[in-house]
Design goal:
Elements (H helix, E strand, L loop, with lengths): L2 H9 L1 H11 L4 H15 L3 H14 L14 H18 L9 H13 L8 H12 L12 H6 L8 H20 L2 H12 L10 H15 L1
Helix pairs in contact: 1-9, 2-11, 3-4, 4-5, 4-7, 5-6, 9-11
Amino acid sequence: MFDDQRTQLLATLDETHDKYCRAEELDWPSLYFHLKSLEAARAQDFERFAEYSYAMLVAWKMQRTGGGPRMCEFGSYRSSLQSVWATAMQLREKTPSGLDVSDWSKLKEVFYGIDCMVLPPKIVGDSKVMAHLLPNLVPPVDGGHTLEFLFADATPPHGIENGWAILEQMLKELFYPVLQSPLFQSKAEEWLSSSPRCRWDTSLLKIVDNLVWELAEAK
């Protein structure tokens, strides 16, 4: 699955990346809490990560008063994050190509354990937290871009089982295969070493997410 999307993405790497970087929204709160969440995860600082990632979710529009997604209160979110923290830390140094059956089970455990949303979509909220906690393994999923680009339907799946099934499918059949492409690897190395560097190119999977975002915008 996703053969057409992979082909399109890899065939337009420079063009799509250039467009994304030229049009990148300088939403300073979103960028600030994105970088601070990544920094706290690298330091394995639970308290700082809980605070910054909660603020990141708000900045990334996961709390919309009057309708739309709605987040849990902070205490509930922090408790759920604490329940999977040790498991997540075991995955911090893993790479997509090095994941074994046990690692996939742990990744699923983290997805199931995080509780950040009162209203759906769980896959969107959870993936955003995991993208900062485990940026080498999980990209952020956006209903209006990622799901629309891959499934021609921006409606997030309901239920934790469906959410995990979709995330696992996207990882195995789109994101990880793109990462393994020699062409993408060459381009990503070039982009990450360029000056000035695109502010949102903060990991290889985030770069793929940026490309997906731009391709979905162009639809």
